[in-house]
């Protein structure tokens, strides 16, 4: 680290220790997180981009109280099939594609995130695999993450231009400890974040299903020793964070629920909803899923891999998806297939 970088890091450390951020900024909160949010009046005046396939007022009230919603039976099976075909093509021919992939197995330490071609093919079909931002290569992935039902709900809660932040694709359960997304998936405005969890198969109890603490988006924020965001200057660990969430959610009476969601449904959750991956009790049971994070153009006016450049914008169903600054002609290399 150069002298200038060292001085900057030291200045940030002192600033964070003296004035750590303890909560989201009230001035930039999404409208629905404000105490005075009037859902009934909002719904009367809201003009959805697409025909609604769910009761918006009911879902917004549920979101406000619980920190998540499930949109039932909104995604066509053919679209899910088409996306998984792209995933299988990627895994069968990793040498053809430029994609960063993470496999959290000890044998790959200390570099567990690499180009997909640098992992043995047999390991790509196993556990602890995360395919990072596969939507950049897959047009079907872009169409799936911006399905009209998802877009209608995101535009309602943000009331701003929605942008895609990142995606993760899984074959097996992550078994990840309890966490909230906003300390890790960071934009310029931490509260401008939501995630969609799209099952690519019916999820079973033995596959390490997602769990979440209902209402936990209202829990006081964890202090990493330098504020609510985790970074290289933080003095407290992810395991301390998980312990805080598990203990305090129980103490506050936020029930832990397990997500046994059906293919065709979508879970959308709040930036601060505490959640994690359950234990895989059947090692052969898969948990195929597509997890997408979204922000707003105000909070994320750049691709996160190049924050100092104006991004090249692609628009899918009204949502902005920035071209990856390093992928070149790999962007959209897997073309969308016709879906009825």
TrEMBL record:
Keywords: Dioxygenase, Oxidoreductase. GO terms for molecular function: 2-oxoglutarate-dependent dioxygenase activity; iron ion binding. It holds the Pfam family PhyH. Transmembrane segments: none annotated. Its cofactor is Fe(2+). The keyword Oxidoreductase applies. This is Phytanoyl-CoA dioxygenase.
């Amino acid at each position: 680290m150069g002298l200038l970088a060292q001085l900057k890091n030291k200045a940030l450390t002192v600033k964070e220790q003296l004035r750590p951020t303890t909560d989201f900024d009230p001035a930039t909160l999404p409208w629905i997180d404000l105490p005075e949010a009037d859902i009934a009046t909002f719904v009367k005046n809201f003009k959805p981009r697409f025909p609604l396939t769910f009761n918006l007022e009911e879902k917004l009230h549920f979101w406000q109280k619980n920190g998540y919603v499930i949109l039932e039976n909104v995604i066509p099976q053919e679209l899910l099939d088409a996306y998984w075909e792209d995933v299988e093509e990627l895994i069968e021919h990793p040498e053809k594609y430029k994609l960063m992939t993470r496999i959290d197995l000890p044998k790959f330490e200390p570099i567990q995130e690499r180009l997909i071609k640098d992992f043995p093919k047999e390991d790509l079909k196993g556990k602890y695999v995360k395919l990072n931002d596969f939507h950049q290569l897959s047009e079907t992935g872009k169409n799936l993450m911006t399905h009209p039902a998802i877009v209608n709900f995101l535009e309602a809660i943000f009331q701003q231009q929605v942008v895609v932040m990142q995606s993760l694709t899984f074959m097996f359960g992550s078994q990840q400890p309890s966490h909230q997304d906003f300390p890790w998936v960071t934009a310029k405005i931490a509260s401008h974040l939501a995630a969609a969890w799209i099952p690519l198969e019916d999820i079973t109890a033995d596959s390490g299903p997602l769990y979440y603490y209902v209402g936990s988006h209202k829990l006081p924020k964890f202090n990493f020793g330098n504020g609510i965001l985790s970074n290289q200057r933080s003095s407290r660990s992810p395991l301390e964070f998980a312990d805080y969430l598990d203990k305090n959610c129980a103490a506050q009476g936020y029930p832990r629920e397990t997500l046994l969601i059906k293919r065709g449904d979508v879970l959308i959750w709040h930036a601060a909803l505490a959640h994690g991956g359950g234990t895989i009790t059947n090692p052969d049971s898969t948990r195929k899923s597509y997890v997408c994070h979204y922000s707003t153009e105000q909070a994320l006016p750049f691709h996160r891999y190049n924050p100092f450049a104006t991004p090249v914008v692609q628009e899918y169903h009204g949502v902005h998806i920035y071209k990856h600054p390093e992928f070149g002609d790999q962007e959209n290399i897997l073309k969308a297939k016709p879906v009825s």
